[in-house]
Amino acid sequence: LSRLKEARGSSTASDTRLKVLTTVINDQISNEQLVQLIQGVWGVTTLKKLKNDQVEALISWAKAADDFISEAEIVLALIQEEQYARSDR
User: What predicted TM-score, i.e. pTM, was given to this entire model?
Assistant: First the structure.
């Protein structure tokens, strides 16, 4: 999660790279989960608002992870825990 949060970038990702991202993810996680992930990590509500570095981080992770689905679910759970902890204050 912290590695993903480090990816920021300055320029918005191109439509081509977003297509690569959706191809690599390829139904490993749902679109809803992907939106929850990017919202929890970077505070972005749509894929079109992602920066190049953020898209590249997601593509690299999805390609490199042997069990991307399980890892993504763990990261989503961590995000939910963080949000719960913040709302409990």
Answer: 0.86
